[in-house]
Amino acid sequence: MGRAISIGSRLDVEDLQGDHVELVPKPETKLYHRRWVMLFLFSAVSASNAFMWLQYGIISNIFMRFYNIGSLPIDWLSMIYLLTYIPLILPVLWLLDNRGIRDVVIVGSAFNCIGAWIKIGSANPDLCVPLMIIFFFFFFTSYIYF
């Protein structure tokens, strides 16, 4: 038995091919080498962001001895990372709508780079707290972009 077509339908009976009706032609996807390069770059930046976030939690015992602090401040660095996502996602979504993904990724990469350099500067145990606060400001804002 066939398919029932309402009287107001614009489909012709000849156009029906079994149960498949093609109302909109399928768009053809072209493969460009540049897209693979962009995918690799985005993945690399996202991976570097994730590595910097998880670094303190993975080897917390080493950081506890090096900076002479307890485990709670190190655990809070990972928790704050996730909690900042909630208030900072709205400005990033606005920027994404108004400027596009290219600008959002560039800004996120810049914040990620600045945060990494500040993190390198915190290798001195005496500069730990001030530099870590500045680092995590840049780092948390870069996290939202990815």
TrEMBL record:
Main location: membrane
Annotated GO CC locations: plasma membrane
InterPro entries linked: FLVCR1-2_SLC49-like, MFS_trans_sf
MF GO annotations: heme binding; heme transmembrane transporter activity
Coiled-coil region: none
Transmembrane segments: 36-56, 76-96, 127-145
Gene Ontology terms: biological process: heme export
Topology term for the membrane: Multi-pass membrane protein
Name listed for the protein in its UniProt record: Uncharacterized protein
